[in-house]
Amino acid sequence: MHRFKLLFIFIGVIGFSPFANAQQFTDLSQQIPFDSSIRKGVLPNGLTYYIKHNETPKQQASYYIIHNVGAVLETDAQNGLAHFLEHMAFNGTKTFPGKSLLNMLENHGVKFGKDANAYTSQNETVYNISRVPSTNPKLIDSCLMVLRDWSNSLTLDTKEIDAERGVITEEWRGKQGANFRNQAKLRPTMYNYSIYSERDVIGSMDVVKNFSPSELRTFYHDWYRTDLQAIVIVGDIDVDAVEQQVIKLFSSIPVVDNPKKRFFATIPDNKEPLYALVTDKENKNMELSLLIRSLNKYDNTLANLREFYISKIFNALIKGRFQEITQKGRAPFINGSISYGALVRGYNAFRITAASSPGNEARAFEAVYTELQRVIKHGFTQTELDRLKTNILVAEENGYIKRDQINTEDYCSSIKKHFLNQISIPDAEFSYQFAKEIIPTITVEEVSAMASQFLTSNNRSYSVVGPEKAGLKAITLKEMEDVIAKVEKKEIAPYVDNTPIDAQLLSSTPTPGTIIKEKQLPEFKAIEWTLSNGAKVVYRFADYQKNSVALKATSYGGASIYESKDIPSIGAISNYADSFGIGQFNGDQYKKIMSGKSANSKFSIDPNGESISATSTPADIETMLQLVYMRFEEPRFDKEKFNNIMFRNYKELKSQVRNPQSIIKDTLRSIEANGNPRSWMFNKKYLDAINFNRMQEIYKERFSNASDFTFFIVGDIDAATLKPLVEKYIGSIKGTGVTEKWVDHGNYFPKGHNQHRVAVPMTEQKATALLKIKAEAKYSRETVVHHTILGSVLNLRYNENIREKEGGTYGVRVMPGATLIPKTNLSLDITFDCDPQKVDYLKTLVYQELDNIQKKVLQSDLDKVVLNMKKNSENGRENNSYWMTALEWYYNSNENMLKPSFFDEIINTVTTKDIEKAAAKFLKKADIMDVIIVPKNNEQS
Ligand SMILES: [Zn+2]
């Protein structure tokens, strides 16, 4: 069997890849080859199609239509219509009138917004129907029909257009805020007053509210046409059959006569630098940036691919230097970065950014620019480059091992990039061979030279974004240029790479424990090992995801064991402990010593428990277990680093601008906390309560006793390899034999039906409504599953009545939840944003549905929800993570997820009556926290 497999790969390589032998990439003027497993064709009418068979996930397929059309093609009178049109594709087509398109999809378990979606940008409009069951040929035909209708047969009914104006106005409202205002003011200089400055996709609300339907139909006719369209079908399908169907269905789409030219939107060059100063009451920090535009040539040669790797390496190396500076603490900037990447279609940008508190921006910008000059003057070091190359090659190799498991959605996304930018898609074989051969040839000089190559004197635009404050004098263009001139003249020392040489991860070799008991769990195909220190390890082999191993260790207790006064210190452990490093290494040294290793670990202290999780490749399993061991036996706490963090926290607290989001968050927290002494607000009192020694004590108490933990290991690793490593690194952790439980501190959620109306100062006219509904329940699997269904059914109701019928909001979010510890609690969070004038009315509709659902759940709604839940669970078991969850659940909750009674039986027998009853039972006992946030100015008028 083994030999056969090898032979097959060997033939595959010779047969399909001309680049398989070493030293094949000497002629870099060659074109990047196109993945031959993708069937590509162009119909006589100009429409391009791509079809590919792929089995990750099995028995599903995804369908895309890509239009090389976006907001830059709009006239002023159409500003916003590219995006408006995208919405209309879901509101009636020739084959699927009205809302029947979504109905058809939802009747096959495809969820709108999650599986079926669309987006519009400045240069493209893309629709997808993803993860559709592919076993039913009729459904494949229906999905192709949807693509066909989207290409050419939208109804664009006047009534539906008018109904959608409200939804889009609300989508626009949802985007409002300081960031939206900043971006609007930055656009003109960022894009040198080109068409990009005027097309933000969401468009002008004046246009959206008042355009005549014929304008939209014109845009549709002008731009949705076969020569600008591609369709993509990837999945567990028969490529030949689908291709025949595509040819049959799409060839008859007529070519548009005298088509308008699909022009490339250019950005004019500028010799003189551009400068924008943008202030807003809600901005907190000063954010400076220098952006230098350049043309992206979309060259398809191997030389360009090599160039791509060089710029990727440049970005990673300079990022590493900034991380090191931030890691040391007390950097003269809050954030600093330098990077090279895409700007818009056809353009790249070199970006130099610095964020600081107001008044310190010149110092911050100087520090960032100094790092660029350090590279220009002295280059990167060989050791920095070597480490990174090792990391990239290891990542390429890991990706190559998993090449048969590339997700269908990832293929769709590469094909999309290929169609829009005409960049070739090489297959995994080529990509790996190329990387393996080319990366070692990249020199430190080449990478360092990028810095000055990107730094051209043309096409510069400077921007300063800051708070609007009396007396605040922001840095000018002249001053920014002076900083640059000063740095270019000053002495800059070369970077010193102080890597510890030949250091071992562990400071000493642990004394192994032994496995004293072994128990089989045949149902799970797992083994439980009890170690001599009392720790339990549950192991299951799984290679649904190749080349990966995961570990999780869990224990009860968490923050609940501690008094209220310790809670800020526990929060600080979670937030800062990782920046202290581990073992003998600070964060920066740790990163260096881990280069070329694919292993990581993290810890978490939760309200009622604590855990450690880790992942690795099979090759690095020992490193992963060493890291887990170190989490227990060699944590690192760094007083100096801690002081730096706290210094910054106090400073931040002082300069804190209270923007609407933070006021809203605090308000909601304090209403919900309802006097709970364990609920803290972020303020001086909180910072004062953080204690460095206490942090260490608590961490050590949580992670010192292996016998209180169960370790779960699931992955692509055999028992014989794992066993001795488990004995060595888990068996050697201290164990006291004591086990803990959580402490119940009671429920402070406000009782009864509470209504709050809070006026918050904000610039935009936006109201937010939030309903938090909570009730204690008796735990059963049925209760939990029915509650989840209830949430999804409500979502469908709100989508129909509040979004589509009323055009009142962009969307009502419904989040059902269930917590089991310390007591079983069900919850339902319902939120939406809208026009302040409408919030009270829409709120009554929310309550109305809560009322209705107790009396009447529609069978059609239930069917849609059940189908979607079934579809999501179908491929579930063929996942490593499913088995991790199943084992964890079995040990911690004493329930077996594999049994049909856990999910399948409930979902197969659920009736509308069940959901009505579940709703009535939940709402009868529930406490309701009902909050409306309105703008302050609005309330006064
Ligand atoms: Zn939209």
Number of separate helices: 32
Q: Which CATH top level class of the largest domain fits?
A: Alpha Beta
Overall residue-averaged pLDDT value: 93
What would you call the structural class? alpha+beta
Radius of gyration: 30 Å
> Helical amount among residues, as a percent range?
40-55%
Q: What oligomeric state do these chains adopt? A: single chain
Q: What is the terminal separation in angstroms?
A: 80 Å
Q: What percentage of the residues does DSSP assign to strands (E)?
A: 15-25%
How are the strands ordered across the major sheet?
12-13-14-18-15-17-16
Q: Bound small molecules, which ones?
A: zinc ion
Count every beta strand, where a strand is a DSSP E run of 2 or more residues.
23
Q: The biggest beta sheet, please? A: 7 strands, mixed
Structure description:
This protein has 941 residues and is α+β, with helices and mostly antiparallel strands. The chain has 4 domains: 39-250, Cytochrome Bc1 Complex, Chain A, domain 1 (2-Layer Sandwich), CATH 3.30.830; 274-406 and 414-489, Cytochrome Bc1 Complex, Chain A, domain 1; 515-729, Cytochrome Bc1 Complex, Chain A, domain 1 (2-Layer Sandwich), CATH 3.30.830.10; 753-940, Metalloenzyme, LuxS/M16 peptidase-like (Cytochrome Bc1 Complex, Chain A, domain 1), CATH 3.30.830.10. It is 43% helix and 19% strand. The chain is built from 32 helices and 23 strands. The strands form 4 sheets. Strands 12-13-14-18-15-17-16 form a 7-stranded mixed β-sheet, sandwiched between helices. A 6-stranded mixed β-sheet has the order 1-2-6-3-5-4, with helices on both faces. It has a 5-stranded mixed β-sheet with strand order 7-11-8-10-9, with helices on both faces. The longest helix has 27 residues, at 302-328. The radius of gyration is 30 Å and the shape is globular. Mean pLDDT is 93; it is low at 1-22. It binds zinc ion.
